[in-house]
Amino acid sequence: MINAPPTVDHVIVEVQVRDYGFSSAQQDEIWRRWRAGQSFSLIGRALGAPMHHVRQFLYQSGGIRLTPQQRSERHLAGSEREEISRGIAAGESARQLAKRLGRSPSTVSREIARNGGRDRYRAASADAAASTARSWRPGGGRRASGVCCAA
User: Fold this and answer.
1) What are the pLDDT digits (tens) for 79-121?
2) Among 60, 91, 101, 110, which is most exposed with the fewest C-beta within 10 angstroms?
3) How big is the CA angle at 18 (ends 13 and 23), to the nearest 5 degrees?
């Protein structure tokens, strides 16, 4: 048997997008002008900013505007988890909670069981755990991690 180092199945890399001193309105303007085909120097002159800041701002994303990830409507929202937490504290059943939330009773029941049961359920930690689980899904963060498109 070969003594090989352990392999890493998943690597999470959070990309910190640097703003280079541009306000959100200026960033929108940079993207609008970039899509219109303007050069770095024209964009920089229009914003009164150094051309190399515009270039670096655009290069950090590969020239593709990254959109923030949004949760699917099928997934429980943080506010729904808060309602579940309050309902548990009030002694409501999973069926009652599900009816009030407009969700399936099995969804609510699994959510409670997955996050410590009725005795230990906390909305904030359940939401954080769901977010972590989302980031570990295969192929979930290629653009965010900078690994996009095979060469």
Assistant:
1) 999 999 999 999 999 999 999 999 999 999 999 999 999 999 9
2) 91
3) 140
